[in-house]
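Example record used in the benchmark description.
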Amino acid sequence: MLLFPTVNHQLKKSPNTVPLILPGRTLGLDKEETTASEGNTPCLIVISGKNLGNKILLNRQTMRVGRASAAHISLNEGTVSKKHAEFHTKNKQTIVKDLQSKNGLYVNEVKVVGSILKDGDLIRIGTTVFKFLELDTVERSD
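Model output (structure tokens):
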């Protein structure tokens, strides 16, 4: 059972579009721009912060997080650097890396320069906390 039901909606093609799933709808990149199919893509769920409950698909090999509007994941917070961090996904492995931000990057409340992410890890950038999921299913029934 999915916690957030989704319906696909088409957006204008843009290299900086954030692939974002909100309760009841899916927003994101065109299929030819993504690196993985829906269901097999790692994702982030905002569990604390302004965009609480949002789901962000990590469907590009590299996705930058920052305050700048050019960031793939834009966080408009004073504690977030313009180029704060990057997520790299390759061969079913996701790595998060700090881009020499002023306030740092935290994984499971430990300040890191970089980290290989595991299912369920908590990533804090500024005041926003993300939960990392290896697959873009919020809840799975076994």
